[in-house]
Amino acid sequence: xxxxxxHSEAFMPDDIKEKIHNxxxxxxGAHHHYARIHVAVAPxxxxxxxxxxxxxxxxxxxxxxxxxxxxSPEEAAKKVLLVGGEVQRMxxxxxxxxxxxxxxxxxxxxTFGLVRQFAPDLKLCLSTxxxxxxxxxxxxxxxxxxxxTVTINSVDESGEIGSQIYPWxxxxxxxxxxxxxxxxxxxxxLEGMRKCVEKGILIKANSVLIPGIxxxxxxxxxxxxxxxxxxxxxxxxILSEPEFGTAFALSGVPSATDxxxxxxxxxxxxxxxxxQHCRQCRADAVGLIGEDxxxxxxxxxxxxxxxxxxxxxxxxxARQAAQAKIEEFRFFLDQANERVRKEKAELSSDGVxxxxxxxxxxxxxxxxxxxxxxxxxxxxxxxxGIRFIHHRKVEAEYCAGPDGTNPLAPILDRLxxxxxxxxxxxxxxxxxxxxxxxxVADQSYAxxxxxxxxxxxxxxxxxxxxxxxxx
Length: 471
Fold this sequence. Notes:
32% of the residues lie in helices and 16% in strands. It is of the alpha/beta class. The protein has two domains: 8-301, TIM Barrel; 344-461, Dinitrogenase iron-molybdenum cofactor biosynthesis domain (Nucleotidyltransferase, domain 5). An eight-stranded mixed sheet has the order 10-9-8-5-4-3-1-11. Strands 14-13-12-15-16 form a five-stranded mixed sheet, sandwiched between helices. The protein has a three-stranded antiparallel sheet with strand order 2-6-7.
């Protein structure tokens, strides 16, 4: 099997490659091609986080803990079958809230049991704060759950940092507060993750970057995760706008900036493999990462259908054929991109690199017009290679900017450290305005593979031949 992967994934054992190959969260290469579905069957939570406010009716918000509908296990399984028939590239079912999957074990495992019965090709995942992770290891193994996400924001054994993040936890039928709560949570998280590693369960650890609280501490978290054997570390910038109604937002803790996230990623990446393509998905997300089709699949779209009818719609053979075509496309795309992916030290012959923004609608291609973009993929590029950094969302599309304002202003604010934009198409006015701000917009690589094009465009920017000499 070929595996469209990042540079570091090429050196993984074959069994790990197989596990992550079509998982859009665990494989940077897969996220361009494969979709996921989150089903909101787990409303209760056993800890309180100062960055969280679990709302159930905020369809326009894209952040963890938010969902428009809560589902029963039977409703969730029906939704999975309907979506799997419509979105044949869907490869993963996750339970990510809106509370904690393991604070709702009955609903969580009942959902997984139903889905395993009717959709045996899907990978099953869950997200948890880790408080009850050690308790449910056997059930996870029984349901063949071999990918989990654990949110861990501190490894400070004193509880000083954790107590600023978690007001309380509920454990063994008792509520704990402050440093005592933080210490218990950390002990349980570490115990649970160690048991998962022993059972061969891959762990993605999420850490919320909270400026002024744990930003300097997160490299220590990465070191501990590596020591345990965690597979992937995801640094998530806190989303802390006042309208979100979280304790941190209301007390003035700001959202983390792109530059702060890059700085912490740089420090943590010395110890751990990082996930850099996360979109901080809703608890009812549907589609490719960065895409949200949840509004298309509300309860009324499947409520009147039986499992027999939905299993016909799911059409396992058609799904397998569609994914075989995806694999064929990934093979040729990987051949185009293979030589350009590098680690940071290998990017440039003279130490000079630039940030390049890319507009894409998926499939690893530069295939989106500048005027309709809601997020940019950001790459660091030198004259020898490129590496993916993260994505940056914008508040509104250029072509849908607020009346009476400059639609480019908020985009320029998010791209102030970028030198080059690669896009499928851009109009003369925004291209000229970008140029005046010191950003080159290049549409000559439209509908070409992203990574190979980023290196070619960067070399052109440096006044070098686009193609590198073959060694």
